[in-house]
Design a protein that fits this description.
The structure holds two protein chains of two kinds. Chain A contains six helices and no strands. Helices cover 78% and strands 0% of the residues of chain A. Chain A has a domain of 79 residues: NADH-ubiquinone/plastoquinone oxidoreductase chain 6, subunit NuoJ (Four Helix Bundle (Hemerythrin (Met), subunit A)), CATH 1.20.120. Chain B has three helices and no strands. In chain B, α1 runs antiparallel to α2 and α2 runs antiparallel to α3. Chain B is 76% helix and 0% strand. Chain B has a single domain, classed as Helix Hairpins (Orthogonal Bundle). By secondary structure, chain B is mainly alpha-helical. Chain B is elongated. The chains are: A mainly alpha, B mainly alpha. Chains A and B meet through α1, α2, α3, α4 and α5 of A and α1, α2 and α3 of B.
């Protein structure tokens, strides 16, 4: 049953990721991203991290994809007309594909993935809180500071373009 | 065949490369940004899988941080794209080459 669910969610994530990459219309790409996120959230549940799945859906599907859709409709871009790729792009793309193949092959043959015992029942909220407020206290504060700076940056960025428009 | 750590790592790698191809091949800045998000998500799958199969919590905590950073990044990036659109009237990357000359 768990195997079947893994394959279902994995194919959901992969197919909709392909949709993100190939769809001409940005709105379709955003909806593909949303579906892909749902698949990944399902995988997180299978990995005993239901809290992460919840946070992923809340932050990404609730905020990020909504923001993307909002900006797409605000900018009102026409579907792009695809120009032929440059040679450098094609070289980089083939290199990336070759790297993937090499990585997967070496993972299959060489990697010794020691798995430390059978997985337990999975962490609870208390475990997360314990980790976040003891071992990772400094990163938590830094991330909070970073969020504040990002918020200020967004405000400054939006304000500046307004002033430039008024001035010109 | 039981689903194990290599399956999750393979899925994570494939998803990452899909996002990478999107960043390389697409011309719309917004879609490039979505593909960047896809790459971040692929990394979180690997972290969560390692964390689960080794029975630790560190990977999951790092996924938390990645999600936070991604949210901040999206806010700033989209603000930049909107400012760019106001200035130049387009979000296609070929048209945004003013730093080249």
């Amino acid at each position: 049953m768990a195997n079947l669910l893994f394959y279902f969610f994995a194919s959901l994530a992969l197919v909709s990721a392909v949709l993100v990459v190939v769809s001409k219309n940005p709105v379709n790409a955003a909806l593909g991203l949303l579906l892909s996120l749902v698949g990944v959230a399902g995988l997180f549940v299978l990995l005993n991290a239901a809290l992460l799945a919840f946070v992923l859906l809340l932050v990404y599907a609730g905020a990020v994809v909504a923001l993307f859709l909002f900006i797409i409709m605000l900018l009102d871009t026409r579907p792009e007309q695809q120009k032929p790729f440059q040679r450098m792009t094609l070289i980089a793309a083939t290199l990336g594909g070759a790297l993937l193949v090499v990585g997967v092959l070496s993972l299959n043959q060489r990697a010794v993935l020691t798995v430390g015992g059978a997985p337990g029942t999975g962490p609870t909220l208390k475990h997360y809180a314990e980790q976040l407020f003891t071992t990772y206290l400094l990163p938590v504060q830094l991330v909070g500071f970073l969020l504040l700076i990002a918020m200020l940056g967004v405000i400054v960025l939006s304000k500046k373009s307004d002033q430039a428009e008024e001035g010109s | 065949m039981i689903v194990d750590l290599p399956h999750y790592l393979l899925l994570s790698a494939v998803l990452f490369v899909l996002g990478f191809f999107g960043v390389l091949l697409r011309k719309n800045t917004l879609v490039i940004y979505m593909c960047l998000e896809l790459m971040l998500i692929a990394a979180t799958i690997a972290l969560a899988a390692f964390s689960h199969f080794n029975d630790t919590l560190d990977g999951n905590v790092f996924v938390f941080f990645i999600l936070t950073i991604a949210a901040a990044e999206v806010a700033v990036g989209l603000a930049i794209i909107v400012a760019l659109f106001r200035k130049r009237g387009t979000v296609q990357v070929e048209a945004l080459n003013h730093l080249r000359h």
